[in-house]
Amino acid sequence: MITKRKRDTGTRRHGDTSPLQRVTESPSRIFFNRVTILGVGLIGASFALALKKHGLCKEVIGCGRGQENLRRAKEKKIIDSFELDSAKACEGSDLVLFATPVGSFVDIAKRIRSILNRG
User: Fold this and answer.
1) Residue range 4-13: average pLDDT?
2) Disulfide-capable partner of 63 in 70, 78, 89, 116 (CB 3.0 to 4.6 Å)?
3) Cα(94)–Cα(114) distance, rounded to whole angstroms?
4) What does the alpha-carbon distance between residue 25 and residue 19 come to, in Å, rounded to a whole number?
């Protein structure tokens, strides 16, 4: 016997809230003082904009290979400041997002591991 699956219409039952909605509706929104985004391309910039839109951090630091791209991201207020050196960019950060090609993760992690806080 073949039965049709009920299509998910995207509606939620009364009282259900999304995780993002629960976070953004909480009284103290700021989760992170400082966030570093390694790679401010489409993914990194989108993440930075979402953090800022929902007030989840105080400061977003961008890091990348090209100063021009980082300067443009700062002008557009996607990031608050930038650094070309990944270790310097990660100093004092509560969250580090790798938004770079997967093949570069190990090299970057080796460069920043002594800077990161445990926990």
Assistant:
1) 54
2) 89
3) 14
4) 10
